[in-house]
Amino acid sequence: MASSEIARYLDTGNGRVALDPEGYLVELSEWTPAVAQALAAEEGRELTEEHWEVLKVIRHFYERYEASPAMRPLVKAVGQALGPEKGRSLHLMKLFPDSPAKVAARLAGLPKPANCL
Amino acid sequence: MILHILNRPPSSSLAYRDALAAMDATDRLLLIEDGVLGALTAQIRHFQAIEGRLFALREDLSARGLEGQCDASVQVIDVDGFVTLTEEADKTVSWF
Amino acid sequence: MSSTVDFSGDLLVILRHAPHGSSWLREGLDTALVAAAFGQTVSLLFQSDGVLALTKGQGAGPLGQKGTAATLDMLAMYDIESLYLDPEALERFGLGEQDLLLPAVALDAASLPRLIAGHRLVLTF
Predict the structure, then answer these.
(1) A95 within domain boundaries
(2) pTM of the entire structure?
(3) What is the total count of domains within chain A?
């Protein structure tokens, strides 16, 4: 769930956006690609074309289903949109290490997935 | 055997019908909380189909002063009996 | 028809409450999604007022509360594809299959006990 508690602000180079205690956007509508870049840069990640296409898939998932996906449905959605080669958890683990569903949702400006650990 | 647990009375809720429809020939039904109203002689017709497999929780009957009105065909059990029924069952399903 | 269906699975979630009036339906669906996210095979049974969860044209509540239509749509993404309903409950509201968002298998009287027996865990909401 998105929290309304503001823990800190993130500088996007073109203004600032509020983050909740877990680093998710407080105001989902404030997301821009620059927000994703700034969030990724903080963690020392660089966003490649392969990252962006997954962020697009997960944002589309949220738009359609009004919820951030857990890992399994994220893998399925990526597979449907980008083909079976990319619709594998290994591919997502490589792009968004640790917890792809959570990391990708955060970078895409979506709430933390409710139904994953 | 599956233990079905019902906490709504047949006088105000149709949950009992769905519970009965879900039971096979060996399943048991335990009435608890407001569900024990269904154990009264005046209401027992709703449970004719499962005679011999109907239980009611004594604590809930006596709290409502209804132990005396409970139909003779109902097996009245206490909380320990509830535990035993649960242990004998493959699983439990709640209806409310 | 439904006598040939495979009724087995890890979890059966029985949904007995209509959308919007309480949080039971949402909680039931959330439970199903969590179980599916962890790889359990999940089946859903729409029964009693719960069949109203399936009707077309649902929207947000008067205070902007989230509806359930998007969540129902999402079930397939969690591989929750075994959906059953009680045809009598549907009839009680004058509804038919053409009024539903998703196809669900109408259960006959003999199938309901088999559906329950076939799942390791049954949770009612």
Answers:
(1) yes
(2) 0.90
(3) 1
